[in-house]
Every structure is written in structure tokens, then in C-alpha cells.
Amino acid sequence: MDDDYTSIEDYFSNEVYLTHSSDYEELLGNNSRPELSPRDPTELVLMYAFNAVIVATGIVLNLVLVKGIIGAKSNGALLFVLQIALIDVLTLLTCNWELYYYIRRTWIFSKLHCTLYSGLESFTSVAVVYFIIGLNFHSISSYNLAVELSKNALATPDAESATESLTEENNYEVATDSISQKRSLTIDYRYKKRRISVRLPILLVWFIAASESLPLFLFADIETLNPADSAEQPIKQYCTELTNTVANHNIVSLMVIAIRIILPSVALVITLAQTVIKFYRGKHFTQPDEIEENVAFSLKLSIFLSISYAVFTLQRLYGSLLQEIILQPKIVPKYPGFNPIVGISLAVLHYTASFIRPLVLIIMCKQKSNNVDITFTCQKRAENNSISLQ
Questions:
Q1: How far is CA 138 from the centre of its chain?
Q2: Topology of domain 41-151+195-224+235-366, CATH
Q3: Which of these, 86, 204, 267, 300, has the minimum number of CB atoms within 10 Å of its CB?
Q4: Per-residue exposure over 213-238, b if at least 16 CB sit within 10 Å of its own CB, e if not
Q5: pLDDT of residue 329
Q6: Structural domain boundaries in the chain
Q7: pTM
Q8: How far apart, in whole angstroms, are the C-alpha atoms of residue 254 and residue 230?
Q9: Where does the record place the G-protein coupled receptors family 1 profile domain (predicted)?
Q10: Mean per-residue pLDDT for 258-275?
């Protein structure tokens, strides 16, 4: 022993406060949040450009699309488009969390931000694909209804007999104070066949997305990992879902694979093939007047939205989400199987879809050949200079 101690008090005070003080400082330093290196100017320029071109413009385009659909009081397929536009707004609002997460390869935000990012990312990714699938089913059902009504119209000898077969006039008596009046009630049995209801499918998709993202809102947290191979490497923090047992982890993984990867992929491919076939078959007959919705335009929307999802976002399911699940319990960032440049490019490609979709949808609604009565600009009336949606 190098030091001489006259008492036991001198020994403990010297050992705790002098000999091992550096060890405690090192331990506290390792448990702190990771130090961030100065930002690369190129990184700042790219982030600002992405936020200005994709995020800000995409949010504006989606809000314009939402305003136009609500102002036109549209129904049917455009109600699905309305939900997708709202989801795209949420997607663009959460993209910066992920981009910084991937660029830094560590989570630099607080626990609250981790919870919001994990829950919203799951919610938006589930909702958008199931809304597109719901739109595909709606377009297919509308096409089948139009074909059925066309066949019924051809089978009817003339227009009068067709009207009589679809409507019925029932007579009934209404008794007043002293006079019994005979009135006629016309029941139109065609009303229930003129449209396909979309309220229940839309509510069902919202429920599925909320149910799938609820565990992430509840159990997402920051996990800190100390690199064991080199002491010079900084510690890393990951935003992930924490499960208390291996059994719970396996159950959650199977649910995610089934609900977010397998089921939407199969349903999207099948419904896309059906919409393409029915769109080309629909060119050979005229849509009946009883159908309130533009069936051809609904099929166009389904085809475009399905293809856009396959091009921009399907790679995310298999290149990022599936790889994260396979590599668990090891905690990894997004796109673990790719180098940083490819990974960030795929992430940007995914979020670019929320900018491309509303832009193309607005152009499609403005085309005269689609016969869609939706406008997205506000003009002043010449009479009283008041603003009205035109």
C-alpha cells in the first residue's frame, strides 16, 4: 500500500473520493446521452431542401385535396382518397424523426418523441395500405353493380316496363278530422342499388390501424447500447418496442408480419389485378344512369394508388420492417441490410409518395375526360367580392 493512514476514517475518505473518483465520472459519462458530432453542412442543406420541397409542399397539396373533396361533398371512392390524404399529412409530419434517426444512426430525441414516432409510423403505414385495398374493393363492387344494372336494363323490353319493375306505387288512406283522403306513395327500389356504402370499410380501417399501433404507443421506449468491441465508439440509443418476455416478443412479431406485411401484400396484388381487368372490360359498355358514382374514374384511382404504393412503399415492408423483425432481439435501425446511402434513399423514396399522390390526384380530378366536379381554388365573385370555393 503506497499511502499510510493514521485512522480508518482517513482510509475510506481517501479511497472513495480520491482513488475511485475517476471511475464514477466515467460511469456517469457512459450513461449520459450520446454526444453528437457537429452537423455536416451537406446534411443540413439536404434536410432543408427535403423539408421545403417534399414535406411542406406535400402537406399543402394534401390539404388542398382534402378541401376540394369536402367542398364538393363527394362520396364513394373520393372518401377513401380523403382518408389517404389525411394519412399522408401525418406521414410527412413524422418523416423528420426517421431521417435524423437514420442519418445519425442513433436516437437523438426524447422518450416522448420516440413514443410518438413509433406509434404514428405504425399507424400511418397500416392505414394507407388498407385504405388503398378498401378503395380497390369498392371500385370492383361498383363495377359489378354497374354491370348488373346494365344487364337488367337490356333484359327489360322498354324503358317504361323497366321503371315499373324497379318502382312500385302503393296506395294508402290517411284519416284526418272528418275526411278520408286517398294518397299515393311511390317507393323507389333502385335507391339501395345506386351506390356502394363506404362508411363501414373506412371505420374498419381506422380501427385496424389504431389496434396495430396501440402497443407501440404504450411500450415504445429508448434502448441504450454500449459498444463492446471498441471503447472509443460512442454509445447508441435506439427507439424500439420493449417486450418483457420472449413469448410476448414472438407473438408481437408474428402479428406484425401477418397484419403489416403478408396480408396487405397479397390483398394489394389480387385487387390490383382485378381492377386492371375490370377497367379494360368497362370500355365495352356504357355506365347506367342509376349509378351515381363515376365507376371508370374509381378504377383509375385504384390502379394509380396501388401502383404508387408498390413503387414507393412496398420496398419498406421487406427491406426495413421484415429485416428488423428477423434480426430481433438484436436492436437495429431502419434498413439494416443496406449501406447508409441506399438506406436513406429508400426512406426518402417512401416519404416522397405522400408528395406524389396528392399532386397526381389533383391533376386527375382536373382532367375533363374524368368528369369529376371538384375544384381546388378560391375565386372572388364579381358582384360582392366575397370569397367562394370555385
A1: 18
A2: Rhopdopsin 7-helix transmembrane proteins (1.20.1070)
A3: 204
A4: bebbeebbebebeeeeeeeeeebbbb
A5: 65
A6: 41-151+195-224+235-366
A7: 0.78
A8: 35
A9: 56-361
A10: 95
